[in-house]
Amino acid sequence: MKELIEKINVEIEAFQKNAAAQCEKGNKAAGTRARKASLELTKLLKDFRKESIDFSK
Fold it and tell me: Is 16 helix (H, G, I), strand (E, B) or coil?
């Protein structure tokens, strides 16, 4: 579970960095990377939900 949380934190940081670069500097490539990070975050958060439910049983 700790590894999963670490992966989520890494993806959040990547998303924040790239989303900011797109908004502030108009960097289109950063927007692409931010969208990719958001998709990965979705997957990781679903995995977290599953593990969290299993952990609480």
Answer: helix
pTM for this predicted structure? 0.86
What token pair was written down for 25?
A: 């500097």
List, as one string, the DSSP characters of 25-49: H--HHHHHHHHHHHHHHHHHHHHHH
How many CB atoms are located within 10 Å of the residue 35 CB?
14
Separation between Cα atoms, residue 13 and residue 57, nearest integer Å: 31
Separation CA 2–CA 23 (nearest Å): 32
| Residue 13: both structure tokens together | 């940081």
pLDDT tens figures, 16-26: 999 999 999 99
Q: Give every CB contact of residue 44 below 8 A, 6+ residues apart in sequence.
A: 4, 7, 8, 11
For residues 32 and 21, the answer to whether their CB atoms sit within 8 Å is no
